[in-house]
Amino acid sequence: MFLKQYPLHRSALCNACIGLLLLVIVIALLNAINEAMWRSTESTIRSLTQASGEAIANAVRRDVQSLESFKESLLGADAVVPVAAVSLMQRYAATSPFSQVAMVDEYGRGYFANGDPANINNAEDWHNFLNDAPVSRTYLDAGGQRQITMRRPLFVDGHYRGAVYGSLPLKTYAQPSAMDFFDGRGSSFMVSAWSGEYLIASPDAREQDGKTDLYTALAASPENKPERIAALRQAMNEGKSGSAVMNIQGRQTYLYYTPICPANNWDMVSIVPVEAMHQAANYVNALVAIVCLIILAGLLVMFSLTRRHRTLALKIKARHYRDFLFQTLSGSTDNVFLIYNASRRAMEYVFENLERVLGIPMRTCLENPAALFEHCVFKSGSRLREDFEATAIRDARSEECRVINPATGENRWVKFAVTPTSDVGGRTYYVLSLTDITEEKAVRRLLRDSLAAAEQASKAKSSFLSAMSHDIRTPMNAIIGMTAIAERHIGDPKRVEDCLDKISVASRLLLGIINEVLDMSKIESGKLLLSNEPFNLNELVRNALDSVVTRLHKVQFCGIVRLYAATSEELCHSQHIDDTTFLTLFGESL
Description:
Layout: H1 2-5, H2 7-76, H3 86-95, E1 100-104, E2 109-112, E3 117-119, E4 139-140, E5 146-156, E6 159-169, H4 176-179, E7 180-181, E8 186-192, E9 198-201, H5 214-219, H6 226-237, E10 242-248, E11 251-261, E12 266-273, H7 274-277, H8 279-308, H9 312-330, E13 336-341, E14 346-350, H10 354-358, H11 362-367, E15 376-378, H12 384-389, E16 397-404, E17 411-422, E18 428-436, H13 438-488, H14 493-518, H15 520-525, H16 537-548, H17 554-573, H18 579-589
Helix pairs in contact: 2-8, 13-14, 17-18
């Protein structure tokens, strides 16, 4: 009864209930946002840590593969004796990532690339490997730099003949840009799970309160219980991934660890202050608080407007004010809004900019709503116009159409949106929104073309690099193989001269390839010219064989050459050259 007599109090009570409900919703929303932001930040830290760790692991695997390729070249050159491999090691060390290369025999004795003797039976640390791991444990060189050594065993006819070693500084794998994040407040570093020692670290993470290992830095904070540190150490030594909130340098810090090289017990660890992880959430919380204040202010405004709009005169004034705002808005925007009364099938309101944007007079549209569709071309199968005229639209719909301006004949693309709504009397209205998206479609088309061009350029670059690497590798293999053969037959001048001839041919081929690479401007501008001139087919095939066939049996090779010479001579003197016959004979000989 009280609320019926005092409708304003009823409105105030409703507003208070709405405000209380909004407060509960906001608190729940803040909790959900904080949890979501925390999970998102955790996921980001884990992704960054795993990415940097994977980059280091890939770099290590790449260098191991490089040493494996060098080992294969030693086997190919039959240089499995340390003395014979010194010159090859010197050339490899000059281009490889390793600061030192060594080769030892099955007894553990050999030479470094600089000629110094190497012996893995002594107590030096450079050959300290765990079981059959390809990478050694870390050690300090004479200059105090932390090093690692990689090895690849040599097997000849199934028998162990020694191993090839390569040493390089561990800091080679440091990636400063990937190991600092959150504006420098977070950092990643690689540690030894056994000792916690920092192996690869950014300058900010190298020392924690003067400590040089992770476990000591954690133990320096009394808040970190010894059992928690022991549990963390055990998990890292067992090759597990995980996270924990620990105290470092007096601050609550989120710590995430994941293994990157289980054979050497290396782990990638990231630390981020908890306050830095909450920073984004705090910003969102402040934003939500501001929104709540705005909503509260809006409720107060609503209460005030409810009191003021109780008279008919104020409603009429508000209607005139609304019309004024619509007219002002229609004069400053290219979006067209219309209100259609679906119950009476009559257009009730049209923005005055309809004629300016689409070339359709506003009065024509008010008198005949179907005129709005006369110049619109929808995609095939569209039923928007039919459903509009039959007032069968129940949910919001949006379609793109091409509009032909009847005044100028210009084609424009328009987004045609229809939103049905109902008033308190149950009457149905359609709110129509026409948005000019011509420039947007042009931008999308340009982006698609740019993407296609970029993808085509990327494929062309990849194909070019693949082809050039293959073309360069062939003469390089010939040069290396002929050099190795010449070194083994230094006392046979004829054999050495033959090898030098083949090296000269391969060198000229390699020089030609390099000259073509350096002349990229001609290729890119489409000005590369192909010369059509006579050539010696015998010499061409012989040079090709010299480049790719370096280890054929002498009798077999001579037989191939004789068969080829006879075939080519016969074909060259004939009036008609049968390519199929020539390729068949030459293919069978190979």
